[in-house]
Sequence to fold (724 residues):
Amino acid sequence: MLKRPNNPESEEHFDGGENELETSAVGVVSETNSQHPSVADQLDSDLDEEDIEDEDSEDESEDDEDGDEIVWFDRDTKAFLISLGVHVVLLVGLAAFPIYEAVKDSPMLMLSAVPRVEEPEEFRLVDEIAFSEEPTEEIGANSLGNSGMAAALAPTMAEISDIPTPVIERPADFALTDASYQVQQVVGLVQSNQVSKGLTGVGATGTDGAVDRVTYEILQMMEERPTLVVWLFDQSGSLHERKKEIRERFNRIYEELGIVQQTDETLKGKEDDPRLLTSVVAFGDNVNLITPKPLAELGEIQKAIDSIEVDTTGNEKVFTALYLAAEQYKHFRSTRSRKEPERNVMMIVVTDERGDDAEGLESTIKLYRQFAMPVYVIGSPAPFGREFTYIRYIDPDPQFDQTPTWAQVDQGPESIFPERVQIGFDNNYFEEPVIDSGFGPFALSRLCYETGGIYFTVHPNRKYDGRVRESEIGAYASRMEYFFDPERMFQYRPEYISKDEYMQRVAKSPLRQSLIKAAQFARVGDFDPTQLRFIKSDEARFITELTTAQQSAARLEPKLSSLAEILIAGMPAREKESNIRWLAGFDLSVGMTLAHKVRTEGYNAMLAKAKRGMKFEKEKSNTWVLVPDAEISVGSKAEKEAQQARDMLESVVKNHPRTPWALLASRELKQPLGWKWVEEYTDLTPPAAMRNNPNNNNNIPPPPQDDQAAMLAKPPPKRPVPKL
Fold:
């Protein structure tokens, strides 16, 4: 509200200002009128009306005690308010429209966005690969359909609904991607309506740890909807101890599940529709459905497990059992007559072998992904690059001999085909050290991975800080000397892809072709010199011994040369390979092959040198001893190959620490690659015992035994180890 001042002078000044305003306004009006008469007339009429209204308002207003007249709205006030309103409307209108600023792409991103693509050079070695003792598997998850249905049926544990073509990832990217997913999984960001990729190589010291994790997975499923758990038990004799442990732990499993049911109202079901049902299947050479109708009572479940008999055929048709079990219970996952599946269904396989029917892997994966049923395996670790290992077997019947023995079992390899050269122990596989691969056998691991389950690698003697000695191996446990941290091994995970996709990738890389062909090369024996000590008492006999010793090296040299030639062909593609597992396998294979080649050729050359004649420097010396040495003294080619072998092995130790590849490379580096002759003296005088008893007949008859005591000391009968 504006007030006129009391001061007369101020009134004069104020009136003068009004006069000036009126004068200027008249000038503007007249000018406007001359240009736009109609607008000017209208403006004059508006001003006249305003003056009349102002006079009326002045007559009707009352003076205050001081004589000041209150004026509510004059021309200045109205002009101010109109201007304010126009500006407010303008500002609000501008604020309603977002302003976009074009962001220029980073020049660095533009340069690296499209990598250079080079056509791989033609390489035909892969066509000659022949695989012995390898199960025929038709593998190809990328060709599977019905991923949309899988997304609709999936339980709460998911990652991706489609089955993407696996991509070879660099180690850093691979680790970051997995870490991101792990974080999302913990905070609940992973969508629950998608099919998850599972986990493999989850290490467990004992069966209890794996069973506890499985119990947690069951609880997760029960929170979403009622659940059916199908236990599939291997009937082979080697699984006796593990089945017993799980049977004894069933009380705790179902007590924990029961406690949750009683305390959480959301998990309660109808009396005639238990929240948790269980079924038991046994498999060996045949598949036996122990519980045709799923059970809810713990006692009945335990009786079903106790009724499983041992299968002595040695066959484990695990994929047949899984397929038939899925057909039996898939109706629980059908959505044709209801809005959502009636139950979640999960399969838990208890076995310690890879299975003898892996040709059924493809159809099994397809069926399980179609109905979104995850598979969990409580299994054994696969030996690194080997198809079989040995278990410490003890007869389960105490009436028979309980002496431990070693029995062969098929537990590997961890990849589709072995990816390491087979050098050493060609005549005695048992003496070759067995190393944990960090993962389970390929077919079962891939099934868990594709269906969103977990493969648990169970071993009672698992430790990561040293060697497991043979005496420490527990009953029915596989013979493995070294284990590796699963978190470290994760980035070395095998490629869980179809066989066709695997071979396509191999065909595009000369490095991979070389390694695969070398890995399938006939096993080359470890160079073990038959003789290192040569007594030169008689020249002819000395030459004969040298010639005989050369024969073992002469038989091994061509094999090692051929193996080295295969591997060297892949060297030009080494810089193009980005997969860390392939690089580790290739570098180790090249280094080991060249190292054995240099040692063998050097041994042969040093014997040839001795045959040409060597003189003793010491007067009493009569013996030449060949000892390992770091120096290569048999030629420049051998020196070059020795240096290349060291470089490759050292790169494995440096770039792949705490892995099976680094372990084998470090052991290889400890053995010198060269040889040298050392002269010694050997006393050729026969011992006194030999002089006094030329016939060397020192046999002493044993003392007589008490027949009754012998009968009491008679050990229990021993029966042969069944096929496992």
The chain is about 45% helix and 10% strand.
